[in-house]
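Lecture notes, unit on binding sites. The following record was shown on slide 14. It pairs a sequence with manganese (II) ion.
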Amino acid sequence: MTSTQNVVPSEVCDAIRAATKVALMGHVTPDADCLGVIGAMKLGLEQLGKQPVCAMPAGSVNRKLQFMVALADFTPGTAEQLAACDLAVAMDTAKEKRVNVDGKLEALPDAKVLNIDHHASNTQYGAVNWVEGTRSSSCEMVYEVLRALDVEITPAIATLLYAGIHNDTQGFSLSNTTGRSLQVGHELIEAGAAVEDTCERLNRSYNQPEFQLLKTVYANTRVSDDGRLGWSTCNHQEIHGAGCTAEDIDDQVEIVRSIEGVRVAILFSEGNPGKIRMNFRGERGLPILELAQQFGGGGHNMAAGAILDGTVADVVGKVTAAAAAYIAQKT
Ligand SMILES: [Mn+2]
């Protein structure tokens, strides 16, 4: 451990130091960044003698990411345990309504809310907020917090945080990769992060249903005549027919963005009947957050999401028209 940066607001550390029972929560449809912060914070707070309670409504973690739950060794807290917390740390979650807790923050009436996040669109819903839209990941921020609290970065903590940074930067390959994210990655490896095993689990461990779904996303990919808009779809039948669920959809939008010339990539998925989820990605310097916000969504400048009611065909028609107009306006 070499570098320390005095970047964490003192209120963040003060809120954690003052707490006893701490609820740890991320966003619905948890990804590796979300599980990384929950797991690393859980292990770190135990070192400090706190009683962390992880919020994770049953069944919300997909198969591929179960290893992170095992690594952090947590069982989801009960409603009673969550309600007894005096601090709620919401991480990687841009809006209060995206918090992955049954009953949302009202389920924790006595808890002060600490909001730690790297989404530019974060609504600052905490009593204490540390939001930095230029950070690669929430894991990078929680690393700074744990260092500021003098937590020992064990191999398990390092692995959890590395997984989140790796995933949110697509292996340190996206525009959110900064010198600091590489430096934190370096320090996590020095602390014993299991890089090869983790990245194999994240990127090279599809089971047959997940691989089948990839084939569907490839087959359904379309590109606009000018080559700047790409999209794909997977409807309810295709997802469940492959043996997958709504939780298994997220990174497949990378297939669409990988096409040369595509500036906006969208994946439309119907994990739950009539609810069309959209994953938006901006490529080659074109941000898509404003586009996602046209449909009530949110996220990052270059990666965002939204959900609309309807059929896949209706939503695709409406959203691709808006996306084409958006590209014409912005480029
Ligand atoms: Mn994230």
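Take-home: The chain has two domains: 10-203, 209-330.
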